[in-house]
Amino acid sequence: MVAALSGSKLRARRIALGLRQGDVAQAAGVSASYLNLIEHNRRRVPQAVLSRLAAALQDTPEAFADGGGAAALDDLRAVALAWPMAELTRADEFAQRFPGWAEAVLAMHQRSLAQEAAIAAVNDRMSHDPHLSASLHEVLSAVASVRSTSVILAETDDLEPEWQARFLRNLDQDSARLAKGAEALVRYLDSGGQIDAQGSMSPQEELEAWASGQDWQIGSADIPSALSAPARDMARALQGDIRVDHAALPEAAFRAALAAHGPDPLAIANALGAAPFAAFRRLAFAKGLGLGLVACDGSGTLVLRRPVAGFSLPRFGAACPLWPLFTALARPMQPIESVVEVGAASPNAPRFILRGFAIASHPAGFGGPELRRAMMLIIPAGAEAGAATATAPALGVGATCRTCQRQACPARREPSILAGATGL
Amino acid sequence: MAGHILLIEDEPNIAEAIRFLLGRDGWQVTVLATGQGAIEQIAVLRPHLVILDLMLPVCSGLQILTDIRAAAATKDLPVLMLTAKGQERDREAAVAAGVSAFMTKPFDNSEMRAAVRALMGAA
Q: Which of its termini does chain B have fewer beta carbons within 10 Å around, N or C?
């Protein structure tokens, strides 16, 4: 049950004693209007005021403790913000008159949020699982080729020897592809019976899960043999990058630059003559800063994800096109920054500063292709620029369209499975 | 029978089988292995029919179809799209974009030949 609030207890006690609001207020040294707000749970009661009111009501302050009711009322108000048909200003009245119902509403809201998150994760997996999609596509392509080629061989009486040889060779290739694709598919489906709550992991997910377990302090950590060989390779490559980053940005110099510039990776990189991405990684992996990081290649595929609380990152598939990560990808060497809010549009939506930067390289020289990589630092709004960030106009973003509740987003590429969930 | 078909298919063995089948029926078949530059090739080759795989590297079949319908010179060009099971949502998008017909992989050779004849007006 939602515990009775301090204000309601104070009011009940005063009425029981037959005292007038003005008399109690005067005895406690507060105004009658302030006490009225307190009694109707519109104001939190400071401890000192509670002690004086308790004395005026001939009782101890403990007798009027809210027992968690105020926190529950805050939660109820959050529900009302998410469901505009609920009367926000009457949340306290609802909690007091129907504490059991209030608790049920809160429980259902929490369950709804949990289920939305679970649906989002499952949908993400089923819609965008690259392993399943790639295996099925490989099998279907091989079957299509085998089917068409074998009919040609069987039904064409006057097939020229040259074509016959070519089609037999194609059949040989496709049957091998088919066997390999089917084997991969069976292996994938077999693993479905053994997967844990997180599901079957890609090497990238294995790496990220291990790094997360180490709080991303993996520069010199032993790579566990339980990781798959591809995941171990990726872990070794990341450790190599981290070692280079620490050499370019030693701890003392890095901390001094951070103190001078804040979590601005370009300013820190420039101050210490380091590569920009080194500063991005240093900031994201630094202990205690609480920053997140995503990196993508030229196709926009996320190749590294260091999550941060409150900012969802998709496991598979394309991310939110409004992230400055992708704006930066299209404009190499140009810093792109956005203040964003995530989740359903709401006055309480969490805010972040996103800083994206991309680099183009030509590892094979003039004759080779241009490769691009981009990184985006995810900074909780409280970590920098405080009030300015809290009030600046913010861009609404999500993790991926399928699980984003911002129906009217101009960048939407497909419907959300959460459509209409909150009427936003 | 005379007519030029542009086949855009990234699976070389499937492309070879289709080219052989349609070639035996008298159609001239040009094969592109990716969607890159497809619109430019269509402008140059002026095919009577485009057979388009939905899943292509670089530029998707859906994007090529959209570009075909957007250009005045090709807005009425017949397009036969090759899709796979499980791409229903993409098929809906292709219908909205103005595709002429679908063929699902794995396809039947005789159905492929019949569909081409129909789209070329030679049924």
A: C
